[in-house]
Amino acid sequence: MNIDIGHWIAGNFGSPIEFMKKHHAKITHIHVKDRKKDLAGGGGQNVPFGQGDTPIKEVLQLIRDNKWPIQATIEYEYAPPAGSDRMAEMAKCLQYCKDALLSKT
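^ that's the sequence the OP posted. Answer follows.
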């Protein structure tokens, strides 16, 4: 199965961590994006990595620490901020994930 951790958060399902611990053998890949929780009933918005409620760092470290063969695919789904563009933002997303995987905490 595929788990979209951003949709998980925007759908107010709590953290995907416990689900992943329980069902990791059935998960082949995850979609990674940062989103806000849905506080108004219309779905939480997509935001730059590190600005939302999605536990990106924790999920990536969970996969890393358990050596699970789960592919993580970045989904870029927010509008570039003023003065930036899609490619610059993708580079920031990738760096955010690299930093999470290199971090011990």
